[in-house]
Design brief:
alpha+beta, disordered N terminus, single chain, Nuclear Transport Factor 2, Chain: A, about 25% helix
């Protein structure tokens, strides 16, 4: 008879300080609300509120661009974009993992920009990995992020 070296998953969650995955409905709802608020703020064009949706040490790596570090940088960068374009953004989560005061979410981000001075709209879709942290005030905020373009051939694109 072989000994079982595998710890049952519920027990593993307890050992690493995580709750069971099925107890996170309120956290998932709060994370969804954060995403919806981000999209609404960007669509409104008034990006000052974005600073309150990210942690003080926020950092995001966007595809092919320098890192954006800190709330003020995010507000300035998005503000610059929104002076030239109207932006419609959406995010389709593929997976969300909640581990105590941290959450990890991967999905597909879709962005449509329309030049304010006229011109053809541009659309892009990309993979995104988001790391969120719950603060002392019990609010979820974005702490880290990374995006990467989708494959160029249709057969390689993930189903959405």
């Amino acid at each position: 008879m072989r000994g079982d070296p595998v710890v049952p998953s519920v027990r593993l969650y307890q050992l690493v300080g995580m709750d069971r995955p099925d107890t996170h409905e309120a956290d998932r709802a709060a994370i969804d609300a954060l995403r919806d608020r981000w999209v609404a703020v960007v669509a409104s064009g008034d990006v000052r509120e974005l600073a309150d949706l990210v942690t003080h040490d926020y950092e995001v790596w966007t595809h092919g661009a320098p890192a954006l570090i800190g709330p003020d940088t995010v507000v300035a960068a998005m503000g610059a974009v929104l002076t030239k374009y109207s932006v419609d953004q959406s995010y389709e989560p593929v997976e969300t993992i909640i581990a105590g005061d941290w959450a990890f979410q991967r999905g597909i981000e879709r962005i449509r920009v329309v030049p304010k001075g006229g011109g053809a709209p541009q659309e892009t879709a990309q993979r995104a990995l988001l790391i969120l942290r719950r603060g002392a005030d019990d609010r979820w905020r974005y702490a880290r992020g990374m995006t990467n373009g989708l494959p160029t051939t249709p057969s390689d694109k993930p189903a959405t």
